[in-house]
Specification:
Layout: H1 4-17, H2 19-50, H3 54-70
Length: 83
Amino acid sequence: MATAAGNVSMIRHNYHQDSELEDFLKSNVLKEQVELINKLGQYITVLQRVGRGLGEQEFDRQLLQQKCLAGLSGALSGSIPKY
């Protein structure tokens, strides 16, 4: 059986030698992760601005409303509540 470390080194080796795999990972996988990280950063910024209490409750209410409208699979694709 191959170890996890062996698998990682094999993937790294293949990644650098396979330009199509490299392009796919950069354009699809990494792009989605960057977008998600940016979205989460925006949420954190908004939550820091609204503070605790009623502002946080309103943010949660709007976020929950977006989840209900967009469905659970696309919950993070909605717009961020602005304050």
